[in-house]
Amino acid sequence: MQKPATALRLGALLVALLPALSQAQTPADSVRSYVEAARSFAGNDHAFVFGQLCETPIKAVNAAAVTEKVPAALPIIDAAREWYAEPAKVFDDLYFLGQTAFSVWALRTPEGIILVDAIFDYSVEAEVVDGLRKLGIDPAEIRYVIISHAHGDHSGGAAFLQKLGAKIVMSEVDWQLYENSNAKEKATRDIVATDGFELTLGGMTVKTYLTPGHTHGTISTLLPVHDNGTAHVAAIWGGTLFNFRDAPDDPRDLRLRDYAQSSVHFQAMTAIAGADVILSNHTAYDGSTVKLPLLAQRKAGSPHPYVIGQDAVNRYLKVAESCAIAARIAEASGP
Ligand SMILES: [Zn+2]
Asked: The pTM is what?
């Protein structure tokens, strides 16, 4: 009596499925679910990046607007160079050398400096070279420059830094993007970063991971840093916005899929490393527009504004993942 028993079980299964089927989610329901998931992951600390990444899906389903207001850039302090920001020491061994809206992070080891990103060709000398001098550090210490991705706001200064003697690091895919770009002056290939690539200098090891999405060769980075001697791990999400084109040979749908998967990959790597600091190459995304001024007023013994804990680092990456999924469903289901 094999068949009736199987039929009975199938029947029971169908009955069990019926309520679920009758309440099947529409694409708009799914978009709403991912937007609200992203909103709760964002909390108050990652509201800016949530507002940026979920902007289109929020509008698509008329979800609530983002209320938290985070400045989009650091204050203008030089009327002639509105992009100019002061350099700052952020950890014992990590420095901010960026502009009002774009970041360069400098890890100083006993044997030299590893930079993450090179900002623009027009600003790199004033921010990175003169910035280090202002901090009392010799720019000749710069040994490596890891380029998160080959867009001009992060790679524009690479040729200049290479001429100073630094070795430039990019992923294979973004070296190609860079080499085919219309940058006025280009660095030549030094080092190709792979997934899990380790760069050790002066006893400190920086790790890079391939996180395709924002560009196909975006790399995200883990840096060991210290606050008054206490060790922390900083994670840099290498490319943030979904501002890529849609083309038959490069569909947005697959980019958004890759982006979400890359976030899951980096979530695992940050968890294994115990990353408790999130950094970005845009000053608003990681809250540097708030944290750098706070840090300047920090009193001895009070918490470090950049040390947010492992859960908050994970929530930042979850916002990126959830908004990518929400955008993908919203775009697939049309306006
Ligand atoms: Zn970019």
From this structure: 0.91
